[in-house]
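Field guide to reading this record: the first block holds the primary sequence, the second block holds the structure written as discrete tokens, and the final block holds curator observations. Each block starts with its own label. This record concerns Amikacin resistance N-acetyltransferase Eis2, catalogued under organism Streptomyces luteosporeus.

BLOCK 1 — SEQUENCE
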Amino acid sequence: MEIRPTTDKDLDVFVDTLHAAFGRFPETPAEDGSGVWWAALEMDRCLLATAADGRPVGTAGALSFELTLPGEILTPVAGVTTVGVLPSHRRQGVLRAMMRHQLGELRSRGEFLSVLLAAEATIYGRFGYGPATYAQRLTVPRHRAALALPRARGTAGADTGSVELLRRAECGGILEDVYDRYRRAQPGALSRPHRWWALGAGQPPVSPAPRYVAVHRDAEGVPDGYASYAVESGTLTVDEVIATDDAVFTALARFVLGHDLVTQVVFKRLPLEHPLRWQLADFRAGQVNEVADWLWVRLLDVPRALTARGWFTDGELVLDVDDPFLGQHGRYLLTVRDGKAECVPTDREPDLSLDVRDLGSVYLGGTAPSTLVRAGHIRAHHPGAAALADALFRAERTPHCLHWF
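BLOCK 2 — STRUCTURE
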């Protein structure tokens, strides 16, 4: 078997092999190649595994994004995607070889973080990835969708902005601009490069699929939020709500929840700690139908990754990190002062021992280290170590990712 990088000439073979791996058939792109999710592929970052006779049997790729870390810090990140192996060649080491090759390439490019969306939860942990952001699907019956009046004294008054209803094709650069403002302040969010919007590569509202878009504008008429949705068989399904603050989200939620001639409103991916259920006059009206992992994170360089993000509690922690897939091990002293961290090798006794996948899960602040201690995955070497780790790794907001890739 050979694993080789691809070029633009390999696009059709790459796409066909990937679809065959999942038992699907490619959609038909527009004449200019746009309107399909693979239009945004970076072929110089893709790999093709071929059998001894030259036939393609596996694919893997990476995309270039920015990831927002705690502290509103933007960092380049590799988005691993298009990973597949033909059914005829599974369980023969093809996937393992491609993942090992890819991790080596990412490191050679100087990247210290990679992320992915996992088709199955049991695949990528063994390669060092851990689930780091989560989302819930919330369904609200239309007849129980009234919002309660805020009870807190001093709560801001009525929204001074406005909501305008547009079709997806009419939105121009509004969605791109609003999303970019949002993702820069949201830990766990990924950038959506301009070419994704231009090529319609992805899921709605990035894709050109027909959608209605409720655009919120502030008092000066500047767009600061949107909700993309479609109605089918009496269900209004919201692809995503992007809002620069909670008041904007509330205005957009009120708009979609007040839609006539629908029986229920479904919010596809809300953060786990989102306040919408508390805003409903009937708390039980909001039904969580599904809670799922979304963004998985892998640290390729532990010291660089830990010093890249922002921190909100001072302290010291010795981490003993094992990376069994790459056959590496390191012990690091993490020292946090005034929002900045230093991370250096140390011989001190560890506070926590953990797999690199578990470090990926806690890295963005979406998974408490104490949860993984209780689950038996992280070992706390003394009382208080887990609580200190919880305090150190927390983020200013629940990390959340909406981008599909």
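BLOCK 3 — OBSERVATIONS
The chain has three domains: 2-111, 135-290, 302-393.
The chain has a mean pLDDT of 96.
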